[in-house]
Amino acid sequence: MEIEPAAREAVGQTTAQPSESLQVQEKDEIEFGEAQVSMALKACGKIFKKQTEQQILKSAFVLENKRVTLQLVNQTLLDFYQEMKQDILDFLRKEIGSSQLQIEAILVAAKSEAKPRTEQEKFTAMVEKNPALKLLKDELGLDLIY
C-alpha cells in the first residue's frame, strides 16, 4: 500500500531520493611537500625522547605520491621504527592534515669513507682540507717518512 504525496506531507514524512541520502561529502585533501613533512617530523621528535627514536625521525626521507619513505641505516633503527610506526603516522596525518598520508621505512647502505691509515694518506687528507699544509711542509723541508 502506497501513501499519496499529500498524505505524506500531512503526516510529516518526506521522501528522499536515494542518491541524496548516500552522498557523502569528503574533506578536500590538502597538498603537501617535503618541507611540511620535514617540519612535522621535527615536531614529532619533541614527543619521542629516546636517542634511537630521534635518529629515526631525523633520517633522510623521500616523499612520493603521499608516501613518506624513511631511509634508515641499520636493522636496529628499522626494528624501533616498526614499534613506533603507528604513532608517527597518526602524528604526521594530524600535523599535515592529510588522512591519505602513508609512511614506510627502508634500509639503505650507510655511506662510509675509508679512513686514511698511512702517514702519506693522512697528510694527503689534511692537505685536501687545508692546502697551506703542503706549502708549510715544502718550506720547512719536512719528510713524511721517519
Notes on the protein architecture:
Strands 1-2-3 form a three-stranded mixed sheet, covered by helices on one side. The longest helix is centred in the middle third of the chain and has 22 residues, at 75-96. The protein has helices spanning 5-11, 18-22, 34-45, 51-58, 75-96, 119-129, 132-140; strands spanning 61-64, 67-72, 102-107. Helix 3 (34-45) packs antiparallel against helix 4, helix 3 (34-45) crosses helix 5 and helix 4 (51-58) crosses helix 5. The protein is mainly alpha-helical. It folds into two domains: 34-107, GMP Synthetase, Chain A, domain 3, CATH 3.30.300; 113-146, no CATH class. Helix content is 51%, strand content 11%.
